[in-house]
Write a structure and sequence with these properties.
This protein has 196 residues and is of the alpha/beta class. It is built from six helices and ten strands, in the order βαβαββααβαβαββββ. Strands 3-2-4-5-1-8-9 form a seven-stranded mixed sheet.
Length: 196
């Protein structure tokens, strides 16, 4: 599940896609590692959002610390923030390998930067590289790259980047999402494909 960068109430149509597949008490793990603010603040914000849907078992993990509790999770929700920071943490912690191994058992939701890292290459992000990243490969759970917060003003850059990368880029507008379930894809809202 790829979210172009929105939360409740703007994300209701997107959220209902994954929430309809779980029980209200199943564990949803929130990953706020990309945030440039306090992880605890971001978690409180998310938990409040999820309470609107009646979800009661929300925990957050710090990927720098112990993220092993995710093994009990039904849903992994990777939040936004700085994409380069997030990818660096995912790579160093081994979390990306875990997601690849467990992808069939979990519902994985990526929002904004969290969506970008699920793709093939993270250069499609709107963020500044605050890490000095040499390896821009994403986790690769989808066979293309993702640009969240998509607007028409990004067309020239994304078309050019698609040629450089040699593969498709999916621009996902805010309040929009892409649901991938058993190789079926459903678009919610507005997306635009850029392909060489």
């Amino acid at each position: 599940m790829l979210n172009g960068g929105s939360y409740y109430p703007d994300s209701k149509e997107i959220d209902k896609e994954w929430i309809s597949k779980i029980k209200k008490d199943e564990l949803v793990v929130f990953v706020p590692s990309a945030t440039t603010r306090s992880q605890e603040e971001y978690y409180s914000f998310f938990k409040q959002n999820m309470s609107e849907y009646g979800l009661v078992n929300i925990q957050y993990v710090d990927l720098y610390g112990d993220w092993e509790k995710v093994r009990q999770a039904r849903v992994i929700y990777i939040a936004g923030g700085n994409t380069y920071k997030l990818m660096d943490i995912i790579r160093k912690s081994g979390f990306g390998d875990f997601l690849k191994q467990q992808r069939e058992k979990l519902i994985i939701v990526g929002n904004s930067a969290g969506a970008v890292v699920l793709g093939k290459d993270i250069r499609t992000t709107n963020d500044e590289d605050i890490i000095g990243t040499k390896d821009t490969n994403g986790i690769g759970l989808v066979e293309y790259s993702i640009c969240p917060h998509y607007t028409d003003g990004k067309n020239v850059r994304l078309l050019s980047l698609s040629k450089i990368l040699g593969h498709r880029i999916e621009g996902i507008a805010e309040k929009s999402g892409v649901v991938i379930d058993d190789n079926l894809t459903k678009i919610i809202g507005f997306t635009k494909e850029f392909n060489i």
